[in-house]
Amino acid sequence: MPELPEVETICIGLRNGIPEQPSIIGNQISEAHVLWNRTIKEPTVEKFVSKIQGQEIIEISRRGKFIVMRLSHDFLIIHLRMSGDLFYRRNFESPATHDRVIFKFKDDGYLVFNDTRKFGRIWLVVDDNEVLGGLGLEPFDPSLSGLELYKMLQRRSTQIKKLLLEQSFLAGIGNIYADEALHLARLHPLTLSNQIDIDSAEVLLRSIRSVLQDGIRHHGASIDWVYKGGDFQNYFKVYKRTGLPCRQCSTLIERIAVGQRSTHFCPNCQKQE
């Protein structure tokens, strides 16, 4: 599943443009074609197609793992889930096998939502808080200090790896960057959140921000056929490195399940207290 760095990379490309595609800011949506009805979460497909017609894309941002487009009258919100992707097409003859929603622009360009596994969802709402209201703070939120994170951790007694994956706690972190951040912070993934002291909380926050910034700098991680935009996978310290030597101490990386999610760590660098 694309996480914060991968989603941020997509947003930057759509907002600023990249060599393969122009910015879509300022484009007016002339038509929307829904090829898989369940992709549209809200409103009904009929209302979605009718309401979005003629709206201009004003702004593109990210909230957690959501892509948020402010339109002339509404918010278009997209969650890629397991296999979703968004890309621009100039020359469009017919839908590809896994195209689910196609937005045609007034300038004859197209924005295509492609989703092999069909888990991705799209909302068109007047108030973006309807969809995003339950999300926690952004990891880069200026109001999030080491002290504030420490207070948040103390309110819970949850395994830290599991807690970092809760989008209502911190928005945007998934399996990859939780594993990498915990390794950098030298915290065992099974450590209970309320057992983390303030100094370790400050280190954890710096580690989270560091691995996310590195991920964005490398345009995210390409680890399977779903997302192929970046090369951060070449810099993993623990994720998907089971049985390989730790880059810091040469101890073999281990894998356990935490909250039914594969979790990778170094038993020497991340000793369980």
Overview of this protein structure:
There is one protein chain. This protein is an alpha+beta fold and 273 residues long. The protein has 2 domains: 129 residues, N-terminal domain of MutM-like DNA repair proteins (Alpha-Beta Barrel); 120 residues, Helicase, Ruva Protein, domain 3, CATH 1.10.8. Helices cover 26% and strands 22% of the residues. The protein contains 7 helices and 11 strands. It has a 5-stranded mixed beta sheet with strand order 2-9-5-4-3. Strand 10 and strand 11 form a beta hairpin. It starts with a helix and ends in an 8-residue tail after the last strand.
Number of domains: 2
Shape: elongated
Q: Summarize the biggest pleated sheet.
A: 5 strands, mixed
The SSE order reads HEEHEEEEEEEHHHHHEE
Number of helices: 7
The largest beta-sheet arranges its strands as: 2-9-5-4-3
Q: By helix and strand content, what is the structural category?
A: alpha+beta
Rounded radius of gyration (Å): 20 Å
Low-confidence runs: none
Summarize the entry for a quick read:
This protein has 7 helices and 11 strands. It is α+β, with helices and mostly antiparallel strands and 273 residues long.
Topology, pairings included?
Elements: H1 4-16, E1 29-34, E2 40-42, H2 45-52, E3 57-63, E4 66-71, E5 75-79, E6 84-89, E7 99-105, E8 110-115, E9 121-125, H3 129-132, H4 146-154, H5 160-164, H6 175-185, H7 198-217, E10 254-258, E11 261-265
Parallel strand pairs: 2-9
Antiparallel strand pairs: 1-7, 3-4, 4-5, 5-9, 6-8, 7-8, 10-11
Helix pairs in contact: 1-7, 4-7, 6-7
